[in-house]
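Suppose a classmate hands you a notebook page containing two proteins, each written out with its sequence and a corresponding row of structure tokens. How would you begin to make sense of it? This section walks through that situation. The first entry is reproduced here exactly as it would appear on such a page.
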Amino acid sequence: MKLMTYILLLTFDTCIGVDLLRRSGVKLDTSLTVTPNDDFLRYEVKNQQERNKWLFNSLKSDCSATATSRCRIVFKVRANVIDSSEVKFAMSEGVILRFVQGVPFYSYWNNRFVPLADSQIRANSQWSSIEMVISNTAVTLLEDGKYKFTWEKDVDPQVSPEFHIQALDWGSTVSFDLGEVMVTSHYSFKEGGLLGNEWEVKEPNDIPNSGICLQSRKKAYEVW
């Protein structure tokens, strides 16, 4: 006998533009700076005059990670110059892209750096895409569409999109770009019958030049 379950998938997309990033609570150190450009942010320091300096950037757009929801954070990064013995790009839930002597890999901190996967991102001014899918029990990451790792960990129900950067050495020179950030929450639950397809797009016309686009959609599909 075939068992058929219908699932209702509700998706709420928030496309975060540069104007929102400009108002996102960027915290500046005295050496590292961040500059909004037309469609990306540039983190930059030249000949850093301190050691182990961080710049913290958290977007004010939390998303949900529970037993019935997934937080999806998609963005692009571009490394232009990595001139330091170590540069860290820290993302949500403690995932860190580390460049050690120019060699990149993903890790997290647990009294020491624990490796998660290698990375193909290099300081060659080429854009790469990163996709994070976060549940209440795990973080999964894809780089340029390729699966990299699933890290099993406890996750708070509300996830903050974070994009911090650190240059370790005195005299460091770093240029690193962040662009096309999209934060999405997926909600799913069982439904007792076939549902029609619906698509709704909402545009915040009352917020000029905000760079925000909101979408909500309902889709029914069959799971066999």
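The notebook's second entry, a different protein, reads as follows.
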Amino acid sequence: VQSSGELRKQWNYARPTLHAYDCCHFTTRTRLVLGTLDIPFDLKFYPYGEGADPEKCGGTGYKPEAGPVYLTGKKSLPALEGVGVPCPDGFPALGESSEIMKFALSVGGLSGSINEASQREDVASWINRVNPVRKSLERPRILRVPLTDWATQADIDYMRWMHVAKQGFDYEAAEADTSKLTEELAPLLEELESMLHGTRVEDGSPTLQADGVLTMDDILIVPILRNLSCVKAINWPPKVRDYLEGVCSRANVPTFFEFAN
């Protein structure tokens, strides 16, 4: 097993690659962890429908043997590929965001750090309550953000099929309910603002924990906020927006505010 110092020396010459979908909350979690810990890596984004078998996906998807399938044996991202990354036998990359983050945390950070989840009940409760609202606001609009994920109409068709056929999601109804949904979201964002108890020493941006150090709580909440940044109708409490932009900026993960629709 290589030491953290040995890995970092090798990564200075051969950076690992994070294979990813830009829209994916799990990918964003891994990007936040890698970026905050100053782990060098390259990003490779994939079209969302590539690698899905049309025979199993209602006629959507294309090139079932292509896309990210070769990395872990299945159409699933994120996946981390590189020197020293512990991969399953026969595959070139480590899959599952939880495993990638566990590996990254074992390597550790240079100037940045991330503590374990705080087990705060208000954090778990907030995530559970915001998820139904954020899905209805986010899903119709994220498809209009110019991402590699949606390189072709076939990629959009596959995403819509996943949500409609497999989960019963109604895109048209969700858009029609925008006013109602933003009214439901507003008090949740105000509640989150009251949950931000500290500030980061580096830039003064808000944090969940009073000591100003990021925890895995932040890694769960910020991807939710990032995807919601594509929703133009949201009125963001200033402190919550500062929190989102501060954590993302530190990890070099852009938000979607400029593409809000």
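A careful reader of the second entry would note: Strands lie at 17-20, 42-45, 79-81, 94-95, 198-199, 206-207.
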